[in-house]
Design a protein that fits this description.
This is RNA polymerase sporulation-specific sigma factor. This protein is an all-alpha fold. The protein is built from 9 helices and no strands.
Length: 172
């Protein structure tokens, strides 16, 4: 058992000093991983890395292997999963914009409107953003969306209405 494993075990047992030391020791790995997978939202990814570290300390079982290998794997797949979720929803502009010709002024104004829409969509809650994207972009019916979420049809209708109302308020 190495020093990192010992710190993880002490941290799991509630030793705050051991947790601090582990966070300090693994900070370079967290930052490097955040940069490797995502160069734009590095601060957010670093924070996610700390959350993963604390969860790994809590869940660590020394009988199943080294803490460092366990943490590296959890961190990598957590960040990849987050990036996949972001990729599925944003940027929406590419999915919304279909270049239909027109002059450069029209294209510029359309792009500005789409940027404003994309910004407003980011302000929606996850469920509201999901229903707007699935209904208007992926062209799924409200029945399909409700069924996949295990909700009633009318719940999906009301969620879509609230999302559209909020989008209108944000864009006015």
């Amino acid at each position: 058992m190495d020093y990192i494993d010992e710190l993880a075990i002490k941290g799991r047992e509630g030793d705050g000093k051991a947790i601090e030391m582990l966070v300090e020791k693994l900070k370079p790995m967290i930052v490097a991983t955040a940069y490797r997978f995502n160069r734009y939202d590095v601060d957010d990814m670093v924070q996610e890395g700390y959350i993963v570290l604390l969860q790994c300390i809590k869940d660590y079982d020394c009988d199943r292997g080294a803490f460092l290998a366990y943490f590296k794997t959890k961190l990598k797949y957590h960040i990849l999963n987050l990036l996949r979720k972001v990729k599925d929803t944003l940027p929406i502009m590419e999915e919304l914009v279909a270049d239909e010709g027109g002059g450069p002024e029209i294209n510029f104004l359309e792009k500005m409107e789409h940027l404003e829409l994309e910004k407003a969509l980011r302000c929606l809650g996850e469920k509201q953003r999901d229903i707007v994207i699935r209904y208007y972009i992926k062209e799924q019916s409200l029945s399909e969306i409700a069924r996949s979420q295990g909700k009633h049809y009318m719940s999906a209708v009301r969620l879509k209405e609230r999302a559209l109302k909020k989008l209108r308020e944000l864009m006015d």
